[in-house]
User: Which sequence fits this backbone?
């Protein structure tokens, strides 16, 4: 009965701090919502166990628990803890100053932490884009693909290789024969980093074409975010293709010197030769031909026309008529192709139409009714956030005419959107936490005391991020909100025990009450921290290995936060309660 309301409200708070994760959208939500849902289910299950099963088992299995003495080790620990508390109470200003300085240092560190959207997943399946200049033939792509396949398969640990060139008739991408995708699979038993480095070195040995080395999942993530297989995408909108190309080259030159930018390229929007046929209406009319008849004749020769089907072994095959290769591949022969007139005579194509080769953009892309081109890049040896901010700084220096503007898209934009959503929803969650604390204690002062100490709990998480490459990811943010929940629950348990000592045991408020309450909560607080830390140790010891890319940074933050959370509840909160807790009494009874 003593801990009932504390356990219930503490569990609700731990669940409430994860509320922002449930509202994440897109890829971030797909990755983290199941994790948060599992965590909340575990908290609710543990609540039922604590309220129903544990008391019953204690009654059955520990009938003489109240007569047992504490272990000598725990007694000595409490004695040392009591001496530390007396020392702290005599140095209140020093303690509060130390807490304030530590919090200030942590807040100063935060802006210097790197940022990333999702970690680099260490998969064993890789997808590589292998893109030559527009207009490259299939034969040329076949030749270079076969060559690189031999080199990649000679690397120890490369198990499988596959590729496709161009696209099928019904495909999910509109690409030309210059576009190739390569797939390779690695043996899980090889040294991952060394093998990937050899693969990267082999791919980098083919200059003059765009290439990258991405795990399959990371490539899919990039495609989903922007439609482009790059980490950062600067998309320039406008109408004139020449201006778009010029601005894209200017942006490329401005960000080329940024440290950490790799695989920098402008969307291959170049001019390629294309045969154009413009009908001469007056000439065509002299021979009784229409523009439609001329276009149909050219389409038949160059593209082919389906004229029927045949069936064989329950399969359907199209019958297509088109020009012979000698006609399709020879410009002069095409110009002299004979077209049958309405009178039955044959008329050369160049008599009734202008046939010429014109420069034409190989690709025109649109979004929201506006043309655009792109400058894309990947990142290496620096965090995503720092590079993205440097790119934004360079973009601000470039002037754009009216009707033209750039947008920075990709993983950074998705990371910022998810981070902002978490921050906004966390504010709502913190208001809910404060209301729960007020409901539990019936005192605005008590709720404020607990709430004001929570920021100290995240200092350990910030230091853990700093020592782990200094990269702040979404997994780290989830770890921070988890630490806040754990710290709030321990603070509630401590203050609830103070309430119990005052209201139920009749101990007058004073230093004796504060010392006794803190000593009696020493063991539960330490056990909570130690058991949670032990549960996290397999992930932390395993390191950032394949399969733990999301859990590892989150576990580090929680472990660091557990340390400062325990220090908060054992050293700081007793001082806060002694200094401010006696000026307003608790509500006599709290019912759940």
Assistant:
């Amino acid at each position: 009965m003593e801990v009932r309301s504390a356990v219930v409200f503490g569990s609700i708070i731990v669940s409430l701090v994860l509320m922002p994760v449930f509202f994440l959208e897109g890829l971030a939500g797909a990755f983290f919502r199941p994790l948060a849902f599992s965590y909340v289910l575990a908290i609710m299950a543990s609540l039922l166990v604590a309220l129903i099963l544990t008391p019953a088992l204690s009654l059955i299995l520990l009938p003489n628990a109240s007569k047992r003495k504490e272990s000598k080790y725990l007694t000595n620990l409490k004695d040392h803890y009591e001496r530390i508390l007396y020392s702290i109470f005599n140095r209140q200003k020093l303690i509060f100053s130390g807490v304030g300085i530590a919090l200030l240092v942590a807040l100063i560190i935060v802006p210097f932490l790197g940022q990333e959207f999702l970690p680099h997943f260490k998969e064993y399946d890789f997808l590589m884009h292998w893109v030559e200049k527009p207009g490259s033939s299939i034969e040329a792509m076949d030749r270079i693909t076969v060559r690189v396949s031999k080199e990649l398969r000679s690397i120890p640990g490369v198990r499988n290789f596959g590729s496709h060139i161009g696209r099928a008739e019904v495909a999910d991408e509109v690409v030309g024969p210059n576009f190739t995708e390569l797939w390779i699979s690695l043996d899980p038993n090889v040294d991952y980093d060394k093998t990937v480095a050899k693969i990267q070195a082999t791919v980098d040995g083919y200059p003059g074409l765009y290439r990258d080395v991405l795990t399959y999942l990371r490539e899919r993530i990039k495609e989903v975010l922007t439609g482009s297989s790059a980490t950062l995408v600067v998309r320039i909108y406008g109408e004139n293709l020449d201006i778009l190309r010029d601005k894209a080259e200017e942006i490329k030159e401005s960000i080329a010197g940024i440290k950490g930018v790799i695989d920098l390229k402008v969307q291959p929007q170049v001019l390629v030769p294309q045969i154009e046929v413009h009908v001469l209406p007056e000439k065509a009319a002299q021979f009784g031909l229409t523009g439609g008849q001329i276009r149909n004749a050219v389409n038949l020769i160059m593209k082919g026309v389906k004229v029927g089907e045949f069936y064989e072994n329950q399969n359907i095959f199209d019958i297509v008529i088109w020009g012979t290769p000698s006609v399709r591949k020879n410009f002069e022969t095409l110009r002299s192709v004979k077209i049958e007139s309405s009178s039955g005579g044959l008329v050369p194509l160049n008599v009734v139409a202008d046939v010429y080769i014109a420069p034409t953009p190989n690709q025109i892309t649109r979004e929201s009714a506006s043309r655009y081109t792109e400058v894309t890049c990947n990142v290496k040896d620096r965090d995503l956030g720092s590079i993205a901010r440097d790119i934004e700084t360079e973009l601000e220096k470039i002037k754009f005419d009216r009707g033209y503007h750039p947008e920075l898209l990709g993983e950074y934009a998705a990371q910022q959107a998810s981070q902002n959503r978490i921050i906004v929803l966390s504010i709502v969650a913190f208001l809910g936490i404060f209301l729960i604390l007020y409901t539990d204690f019936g005192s605005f002062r008590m709720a404020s005391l607990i709430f004001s100490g929570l920021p100290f709990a995240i200092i350990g998480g910030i230091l853990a991020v700093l020592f782990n490459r200094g990269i702040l990811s979404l997994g780290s943010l989830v770890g921070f909100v988890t630490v806040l929940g754990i710290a709030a629950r321990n603070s509630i348990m401590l203050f609830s025990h103070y309430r119990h000592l005052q209201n139920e045991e009749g101990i007058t408020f004073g230093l004796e009450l504060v010392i006794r309450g803190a000593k009696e909560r020493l063991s539960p607080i330490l056990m909570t921290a130690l058991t949670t830390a032990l549960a996290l140790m397999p992930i932390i010891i395993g390191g950032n290995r394949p399969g733990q890319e999301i859990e590892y940074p989150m576990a580090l933050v929680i472990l660091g936060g557990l340390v400062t959370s325990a220090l908060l509840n054992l050293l700081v909160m007793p001082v806060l309660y002694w200094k401010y807790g006696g000026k307003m009494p608790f509500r006599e009874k709290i019912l759940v």
